[in-house]
Amino acid sequence: MIKLREAIETKTEAYDRAIAECSTLNGSTYLLREKKRFLCKNDLFYLACLLGYKEIEKYPELYQGFCDEVSLMNWNVVRFGIKQPPNDLLKVNEVTDNPDMDLMYIERLYLCHRVFYKTTIVTKVHSLQLLLNFPNIHVVLTHNTKENSCDNLVAIKNYFLTTEIKTLFVDYIPEGKEWGNMSGFSVATRTDKGIITEENLEAIGVDSEITGGHWDIAKKNDLVTEKSVWTDEQIKKTQDWDARFNTGHFNNPECRLQDYEGTRYHLFDLYSVKLNNPKIKVIEYPILKDKNPENLSIENIQNPKRFTPEGIKDLMGDMWTFYCQHLLNPLDPEKRGFKPEMIQYWNSIPKDCNFYLFVDPASARKKNSDYTAMLVIGIDCEGKRYIVDGIRDKLNPKQRIDLALQLASKWVIKECGWEAIGFQTTDCYYLEEERRKSKSFFTITEIKSQQVAKEDRIRSLIPEYSNHIWLWPQKGQVVERSSFNNKMYDLTENMEHEFIQFPIGEHDDLLDVMTFLNKISIIKPPRNVVQESGGMTFGEYAKQKEERVAKLNADPWAKAYASN
């Protein structure tokens, strides 16, 4: 159980008694100074108030507990032997009676609504407190850009120069005008200079290369920003940077003391990975406790003394921004096309399915180009769609044809729908040539999808998914190796990625391929088909297909309806 607040109050009362009992002015002045120094080192809320943050001081019922949580890192520094504690830092057993439980997390993720002062408390004020307690500590401040990280560092340096800290801890300030630079500085009480090259406090960014550099603690502020999640490549860049940092830039790789703090801007951003890591403690403070924008009751507001229902309504001008910055949920229902609960999985494939192959070929095989997407979809007698196989890869024309023929042969498809735009019409020609050579029996239909905007095409799937007529393979059932980067990928995971992100995701190739099914005249197998017969023959299928097409051609209204 955490006893930090009680321990601080007990020690403060002891100081107050000593000051009251002191018989000399100099003695009481000295004791008052020592009391303030003690509070600066142990009570993060007090330190924030001392530095002049009136909005934090105004709401102790919210910020006192938050500050206590942040400051627990101080005692992990001691517990893991990273640095020796000063005499006026509370002992670990004074702070908790169960350190293995209460101090078990060495990595923490703070997700707080905008204007919560999370950066002020977690990155700035607590970094100052670390320096006051451990003059030989080495802390790195990180941000998506080095410029913003340097701004945080300068703010911390200014605490020593422009607040009461300059009189309480005058021995920490070096003599002379020169004191580090925009990206690093050290306190005067440091004793390991010349032994360790890093400054006490340094600033770096995701946009800059890390060359060397080893630190005891990392404060990772806003590694994810609104502008860093526009593409999958940007998201991956941030994740890779963080992974490289964690692997090689802590003095003790097995004890990575670090705090992440920021705002959600994407479902699959770096913070989504951290949220699912059981070794990381997650502290969330959305502006509404249940993250429901319709519940504006006073009880549901995180800080009702600061925010009113009317004030929160005013923040809802742009709902996507409100969801990201204030509800910590980067998913605006107004923009969201699909819901996770729409996804259904098949346990087995009916034996009487008619199988179709649909292909959306990419125009280039480059790093930033779209993927070629292929899906094999089975149609049962009830019209349900079973996605049974597929490819999502960057392929050259020959690879496209070869893989399409492999899938066609594997599933004995009845028809292949191939998007044919510009150069892609030649794909259909070569596919037909190879089909004849291999003596495969299926028809090839050119899909003309450009008449309707892609987003509108994909949204046409929403009613079908709402009625659960699409069924996917379970994760792990369709796993392929990419011919482009030689990495393994799971088709269902890729479909889910596109499904949940739509319409703001970078890629939607697999979703678009699903719309092709409504561009052809599909044939459902009859209900009375004998299972052992192997389903419809190609001849039977072709005959029904011809009859269906003839019927559509005779009725222009039916034909128009079928093409939608």
Write a structural description.
The chain has helices at residues 4-21, 25-42, 44-50, 54-57, 60-71, 73-79, 92-95, 99-102, 118-133, 146-162, 165-168, 232-248, 270-275, 309-314, 319-325, 397-411, 425-437, 454-459, 462-466, 491-501, 509-515, 538-554, 556-562; strands at 107-112, 139-143, 184-185, 201-205, 217-221, 257-262, 280-285, 354-360, 372-379, 385-393, 415-419, 443-447, 470-471, 479-481, 488-490. The chain has 564 residues and is α/β, with parallel strands linked by helices. The chain has 2 domains: 4-285, Rossmann fold (3-Layer(aba) Sandwich), CATH 3.40.50; 340-536, Nucleotidyltransferase, domain 5, CATH 3.30.420.240. The chain has a 7-stranded mixed β-sheet with strand order 3-4-2-5-6-1-7. Strand 11, helix 17 and strand 12 form a beta-alpha-beta unit. The termini are far apart.
Which key terms come to mind for this protein?
6-stranded mixed sheet, 7-stranded mixed sheet, Nucleotidyltransferase, domain 5, disordered C terminus, Rossmann fold, single chain, 564 residues, alpha/beta
Shape, per Cα inertia axes: elongated
The helix count comes to 23
**What average pLDDT do the residues reach?**
90
CATH class of the largest domain: Alpha Beta
Major beta-sheet overview? 7 strands, mixed
Instruction: Let me know the number of strands.
Output: 15
Helix fraction bin? 40-55%
Strands of the widest sheet, in order across it, are 3-4-2-5-6-1-7
Low-confidence stretches: 557-564
CATH fold call of the largest domain? Rossmann fold
Q: What is the correct CATH architecture of the largest domain?
A: 3-Layer(aba) Sandwich
C-alpha-based Rg, rounded = 31 Å
Strand content: 5-15%
**What is the terminal separation in angstroms?**
63 Å
- Helix and strand content put the structural class at alpha/beta
Instruction: State the domain count.
Output: 2
